[in-house]
Structure formats: C-alpha cells, structure tokens
Amino acid sequence: MSDSESLPTGRWRHGVRLALCIAFLLVLFYLVAVARVIDVGAVRDLIAETGPLAPVVYALVSALLGAILVPGPILAAGSGLLFGPLVGTFVTLGATVGTATISGFLGRRAGRSSARGLLGAERADRLDAQIERRGLWVVVGQRFIPGAPDALSSYAFGALGIPLWQLAAGAFIGSAPRAFVYTALGASIGDLSAPLAYAAITVWCVVAIIGAFAAHRGYRGWRRSRDQGVRGGRSAHAEPVE
Question: Which residues form the VTT domain (predicted)?
C-alpha cells in the first residue's frame, strides 16, 4: 500500500485517539465539576490538620485536583479560607503552576503524536516555529481570557507541543491576578462587603477587560497571518516554472 493510500487511515486513527481523549476529559469534568464526586471541603479540612505543613500539602493536593479538572476558583477560595489572602495567594499560584505542568505533560503524552498526525508534518513544523517564538505569551494570554478553562487549555497546549517550562512560566505570570482574586474572595467569604472583597472584584473586572481585548487582538492577528499565508501560497503556485 502506498503512502498516499495509508495517510487517510492514519489520520482517521489519530482523530479517533484525540476524540477518545477529549471524551475522557469531558466525562471527568462532569464528574468533578458538575456532579462533584470529590468533596473539596472534606479534603480542605483534612489538610488543615497537617499543621505547619498545610500550605505545602494544600498546594500539592490542589495541583493534582486541578489536573483532574476540579474547578480552580473553588480550590483558590479554599486556600484563602485556610491561609488568608497573602499566604493563600502564593499557595494558589503554586497549585496553578503544578496543575499546568501536570496537565501539559499528560496532554503531550496522550495527544502530541496524534495532533501532529492530523496537522501533517508541514503544518506541525510551522506551528512548532510559532510556539518557539510565542508559546509563553499564548499561555499568558489564555489565563487572562474570561471563562477559559485553565486545566483543559493546558491539556490542549501540551498536545500542541508547548514546552512544559513555557506552560509553568505562563501559568505563573498569567494567573497571578486571578489567583489573588479568588483567594481574596475565599478569605472574605464571611464578609463580602469588606474592602478586600471589593478589591478582588475590581481586579477581576480589570483582568476580564484586558483578557477580552487581548483575545480580540490575537484573533485579528491570527486571521491576518492566515490570510497572508494563503495569498503567499497562491502567489507561489501562480509563478511560472522554468
């Protein structure tokens, strides 16, 4: 069988593999985020009993829970409730970086080869070149977009080949404002009229506006690059062959 005959079959297999990975993540998301089979409050109470080690233990456990798609705002609020806004923010950031690293690693192992197979070698190489130049800032930008799921995005970034160091650094930089917001709200849960709660809501609004603006500009830039690439390809095909 020739390569041209086997290519569609290979892409079909890659597509099925990616579809199964996505289906697994969606089922996992339903179980932990909708059905809430994991009692985050009970986990938080157990960690509180570890004494001085509680911040470190909470960061590690939250990183794992985040990787299985337990919502990050719930974990961050628990951090604020246990450790206050200052220490809690750093605990939340540590957990966020851990979740991004774990999710990116798993996404890379599960979906990298299939993503390249679907894209094709030429497109995959072009994407790798883009990632090398802008991968870090893509991760940072995603963290500013309102409503964008961090763990699921990290799985996708891993499958697309973004290096783990870029995922970790991007998560740290881009998640800092939201880490403060959700942690501060957790620390203020008994008094949402406190100045800390108002400050957290203000920061969230600013981050949402910046994220929406950045997403719009990024989309326009992507469309412009794509259109230029299409025009360049047409021009190349139109040149006479000597």
Answer: 70-187
Q: Which residues contact 118 (CB under 8 A, 6 or more apart)?
A: 11, 14, 15, 18
Whole-number pLDDT of residue 213: 80
**Are the C-beta atoms of residues 205 and 181 closer than 8 Å to each other?**
no
Single out the residue of 121, 112, 71, 126 nearest to residue 95, CA to CA. Answer: 71
Specify the pLDDT at position 5.
43
Burial class (CB in 10 A: 0-12, 13-18, 19+), 232: exposed
**How much is the pLDDT for 2?**
44
* Residue 217, Cβ density class (10 Å: 0-12 exposed, 13-18 middle, ≥19 buried): exposed
Considering the entire predicted model, what is its pTM?
Answer: 0.82
Average pLDDT across each block of 10 residues of the chain; the chain has 242 residues. List them in order: 50 85 93 91 93 96 96 94 95 97 94 83 82 86 85 92 94 94 89 81 86 72 62 52 48
pLDDT at 165: 94
| 131, amino acid identity | I
